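Reading a protein record of the kind used here takes only a little practice. The record below shows the convention in full:
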Amino acid sequence: MYPKNVGILAIEIYFPKRYVDQNRLEEYDGVSTGKYTIGLGQTKMGFCDDREGEVKVNAIVIPILLAVQNLIEKYKISYRDIGRLEVGTETIIDKSKSVKTLLMQLFEESGNTDVEGIDTTNACYGGTSALLNSLNWIESSSWDGRYALVVAGDIAIYDSGPARPTGGAGCVAMLLGKDAPIVFDRGLRATHMENAWDFYKPNMSSEFPEVDGHFSNICYLRSLDICYNRYLEKLAAKNLGTEEALLSKDLEKAFTAISKVDYIKKVKPTLLVSTNVGNMYCASLYACLVTVLSNVPNEELVGKRIGMFSYGSGLSSTLFSFRIVKPVTEICKMLDISNRLESRVEVTPAQFVETLRLREKTNGKKDFNVVGDGSSVEEAFFEGTYYLDRIDSKWRRTYKRHTKRAR
């Protein structure tokens, strides 16, 4: 027998304390007003220095540590009760050692080393793959009754130029099990995968990707179209051929106009975190879920089905869904999104650019104490934040924590 109502029991998000205002960044970069705020739909962009998001091809260890430990502390979960931990990220720290192995230091005191799962990687899709793998584990003969913990997170950072404002950083941790308030629809998902060169990171010594933004948009739309049709098990009526439709600006404008009301009602309420934090790669989709749970009243959520489309360049994509079967009041309270966003600190565009320059300078460096951009721990990090203190001569990392109290 399958366990009943398998899904999300708890969810936690982490984003940096500091951000740059996109209006001010437009002015600093000398671009037209609205290029970032309207064109990208962003008002603020979170970022990490080399203490919070250590530099080794955008390593995401520290935000992931925080997301996991904060979830465990807030919901008073025992590490002994977790049987699977899987990380979805495209920001590796090592060509062999997984980020998951570093998270196992959180389990040391509990004595629990019987924890399945490692990392899964393919651009922004890694978190979804980790989620689906963990759901499959719970519904399989391997399940031993314990929780699965899924972590999706990345630091998105680009070289100076037009792509830089599309950056951001964040991490989402999800606790999975039976009798959940957020229940996944069994067997109701559709996947499309193919080989594409729209976004990739071939240079292991650099933080920056190779990007073909125009082609990536086409790949995204094509994947969404295929997954949607497969999800509905029928073909959508089309007046144009598929490739021609994907390139048609007139069709895009028509669809935008037709869907405007539904977009405001069903999509806009999911964008608060993304608008204020920026691109989080693997965490982006789940940051939208966090926003829905935080912003939409329970009476409007319970009994509803929510569709999620996950796309990772290269490419991998899946459309899946879940139902809200009971109130998520406690989850909303624990997330406390509005207050946490309000408590962040703004930095100037010049400080932002200098911080990224310092990240480039220390990329791949070893045998040094990490000092960041000179700001104090109190200025740079939320209470409870881990930060990188030292990388030794063998690239082994030592971390400290701002305080013992999590936010």
In short: The first strand starts at residue 7 and ends at 14. The domain at 7-401 is CATH 3.40.47.10 (Peroxisomal Thiolase; Chain A, domain 1).
